[in-house]
Design goal:
This protein is mostly helical. The chain is built from 6 helices and no strands. Helix 3 packs across helix 6.
Length: 139
């Protein structure tokens, strides 16, 4: 006797035709897939934060000393972190557990809410303009 598939095992024996159950399972799996996709969409965006407070904290905590006032960074001091920062999870990991000379900013020093605010500030930093489009070069 052939083994029954998972779908066949989960179906009631004679209450609904097999094609109807297959359609129902397909619809349920599609809905579950959409739900999973919706829950993971935008994970890199980070928690909602207060960008104005993030800018204040960025300066107060001293991030600007190595990464510049607008996250531009420099070779001898620290990498660029804006515009277009890495996804929030990677950013938080680098702040909490840095690999190089940067000191770790634990939740005792920088609570998660403050870190989210700093990330929100970094997201507001506009990209650099193309030097060819700079009006001063037209003269």
């Amino acid at each position: 006797m052939p083994q029954k598939s998972m779908l066949q095992k989960s179906m009631p024996q004679k209450s609904m035709p097999q094609k109807s159950w297959q359609k129902a399972w397909t619809a349920m799996l599609a809905a579950a897939g959409l739900l999973c996709a919706a829950s993971t969409h935008g994970q890199g965006a980070g928690p909602p934060g207060d960008a104005a407070n993030g800018k204040r904290l960025y300066m107060a905590v001293g991030c600007y000393q190595c990464h510049g006032t607008v996250g531009q960074g420099s070779r001898p001091t620290g990498p660029h972190i804006a515009p277009d920062p890495v996804p929030y999870e990677a950013f938080a990991g680098m702040v909490r557990h840095p690999r190089n000379v940067m000191p770790p900013y634990t939740t005792v020093v920088l609570p998660d809410r403050d870190l989210g605010d700093i990330y929100a500030y970094l997201l507001t930093i506009p990209p650099l303009i193309d030097p060819k489009a700079a009006p001063i070069l037209d003269h």
